């Protein structure tokens, strides 16, 4: 699917620098950045869920250790 991405001059420069540093086109740098951000968000969400589960599971132990 085609999409138009409008960037202000500062973001355009940042994208050009990123693409040049990675040796790819600006389009490829954009796609990579989107995928990396999505993967990071999914990892953060998974860690948050696992952490909440562990705190619930070990709440008594954590309370005793905190005393």
Description:
There is one protein chain. The protein is an all-alpha fold and 67 residues long. Helices cover 81% and strands 0% of the residues. The chain has three helices and no strands. Helix 1 (9-22) packs across helix 2. The chain is elongated, with a radius of gyration of 20 Å. The mean pLDDT is 94.
Task: Write a short abstract of this structure.
The protein is built from 3 helices and no strands. It has helices at residues 9-22, 26-57, 59-66.
Layout of helices and strands:
Layout: H1 9-22, H2 26-57, H3 59-66
Main beta-sheet annotation:
none
Give the H and E element order: HHH
CA(first)-CA(last) distance = 57 Å
On the 0 to 100 scale, the average pLDDT is: 94
Number of strands: 0
Describe the global form. Answer: elongated
The Rg value, from CA coordinates, equals: 20 Å
Give short descriptive properties of this protein:
67 residues; mainly alpha; elongated
């Amino acid at each position: 699917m085609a999409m138009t991405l409008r960037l202000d001059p500062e973001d355009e420069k940042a994208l050009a620098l990123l693409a040049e540093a990675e040796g790819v086109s600006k389009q490829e740098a954009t796609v990579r950045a989107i995928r990396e951000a999505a993967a990071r968000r999914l990892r953060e969400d998974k860690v948050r869920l696992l952490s909440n589960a562990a705190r619930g599971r070990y709440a008594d132990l954590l309370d005793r250790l905190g005393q």
